[in-house]
Amino acid sequence: MKDKKNIIIIVLSLLFVILCILVKLDLLSNIDESVYKFITSNMNDTTTNIYKVITFFGSTIFMVGLCVLLLVLFIILKKNIYGYIISGTLIFSTIMNNVIKVIIRRERPIYMIVRETTFSFPSGHTMASVSMYGILIYLINKSNMNKKLKIILSIILGMIPFMVATSRIYLGAHYFSDILGAIMLATIVLLISTKYIKDKKII
After folding, report:
1. Do the Cβ atoms of 162 and 197 come closer than 8 Å?
2. What is the Cα–Cα distance from 73 to 75, expressed in whole angstroms?
3. Average pLDDT for consecutive 10-residue bins of the chain (203 residues)?
4. Which strand (E) or helix (H) includes residue 106?
């Protein structure tokens, strides 16, 4: 299992590098434009307002707030390690996201309808939400929680990153390739985090 996880990390890393090259060479504009037109085909004020609420669940303010809340909760429950795992995963994800943004230096879409000042690739909201909710799903499924509750919570938590990612494209904050890159990078972060947890026999 450990070797399989290492192989997946290597393959995803190579695919991410290829994606970065394609983005730098601007070879994905047609795909990005097609996905944007599809998602915004029925754009209206109500849908826009809904997506503005959804995108908040992947914002820095919400992610940091949720992380602190969970950290405090686990400290109270005397399960500090879970809080550290969640915090470490989010911090690791954020650092990697910012480093890649500076390296690629891709400008935001010109049709953006929300205010963003950082570079576009990869999507920070998407990467943070995939990392945060992904590690939560992992911890939930490794817990002694009721099986049905595990499934329900996993489905709910799994839907959030998907909706956040869609909202980023709809609101013009990111290209589809920004989202794809964020998902790849976040998955690598999650695999590394869960590999560390297994190696240290924390769970």
Report:
1. no
2. 5
3. 81 97 95 96 94 94 94 88 89 94 94 90 96 93 88 95 97 97 96 76 57
4. none
